[in-house]
Amino acid sequence: MKRSTGVPKKRIKIVLNSPVILTFTLIAVIALLLSVITKGQSNRLVFSVYRASLKNPLTYLRFFTHVFGHANLSHLAGNLMMILVIGPMLEERYGSGPLVVMILLTALVTGIVHFIFFPASALLGASGVVFAMILLASMTGIRDREIPLTFILVTVLYLGQQIYEGIFVSDNVSQLTHIVGGIVGAGFGYLMSRRKK
Fold it and tell me: Is the pLDDT of residue 72 over 80?
């Protein structure tokens, strides 16, 4: 026979801790499912950016929506793992609104850069957003006239790797998008730190 201690047990609750990151994740998963169902046509139509007529309204939409499109499950999982690890911390620190602005700005800038400089290929995926978040996260310790050594190390390692891979590795990865995303994240972090003063 078990004795009752009289202390009620607390139930474990699942909490919606990061609405922007969870919404981003959900949209990216839906985009991949649509791509599978349509055999890639939804990615071509909505979830990738490429050189297209500026008279087509979808061209402007794709500047933002290409970050939700992914080629396959491993591409999606790789990006979402990083976003789900780093994103909630950034959303807690900076707030949901500023994080949405940073994601939209990263999508727009990387989309425009790809549109201008890579007319023969399509770009899709959230890696620009991932690298923006990595550099934004590494900037969280910046104070007046102090730059964290970790930020310098992350920047040097990250930029060095992307430049090396851009020159010596032949793959389907857009290193320029990673670099541009990182620059947007670092710039955003710098502006946010100046605003808090």
Answer: yes
